[in-house]
Specification:
By secondary structure, this protein is mainly α. It has a domain of 81 residues. Helix content is 36%, strand content 6%. It is built from 5 helices and 2 strands; from the N terminus they run H-E-E-H-H-H-H. It has a two-stranded antiparallel ribbon with strand order 1-2. The N and C termini lie far apart (69 Å). This is DUF968 domain-containing protein.
């Protein structure tokens, strides 16, 4: 009897270690837009575009290490101090402590990229202001 090789069942690309490396998507206009917005944590202006390194199977976003940057759509506005806090510890704990789902928020801001008023309204709702 001949042996047949069965392919591995498909997995979410974001968590498949055998998947080929894909080129990250850069979007300098979106990064510039994010820097115009108030912080999603404090509401202060003068923000940096902060990449979310954590992963989410629901959003098909892979984890990225310190030597890697995620696609530019996965960014949120934070002040420089908040940005350091975001990356100094466990990132998802940082977001939980502020009761923010960073993945959903990044998706929503990317959907309105370029529209500052719409983005500010989204951020106010997230901040409960």
């Amino acid at each position: 009897m001949a042996a047949f090789a069965f392919p591995k069942p498909p997995t979410a690309f974001a968590f498949d270690p055998s998947s080929k490396k894909t080129r990250r998507i850069e979007d300098p206009r979106h990064l510039a837009f994010i820097r115009l917005l108030p912080s999603v944590v404090s509401g202060e202006y003068g923000c940096e575009a902060c990449h979310i390194r954590a992963g989410s199977a629901v959003h098909r976003k892979k984890w990225t290490g310190k030597g890697q940057k995620p696609d530019d759509c996965w960014t949120l506005p934070l002040t420089p101090e908040e940005h350091r806090q975001q990356h100094s510890g466990e990132e998802l704990a940082f977001w939980r402590s502020h009761e923010i789902d960073p993945f959903e928020l990044a998706v929503r801001l990317y959907e309105v990229s370029g529209d500052v008023q719409a983005a500010e309204q989204i951020i106010r709702k997230v901040r409960h202001v």
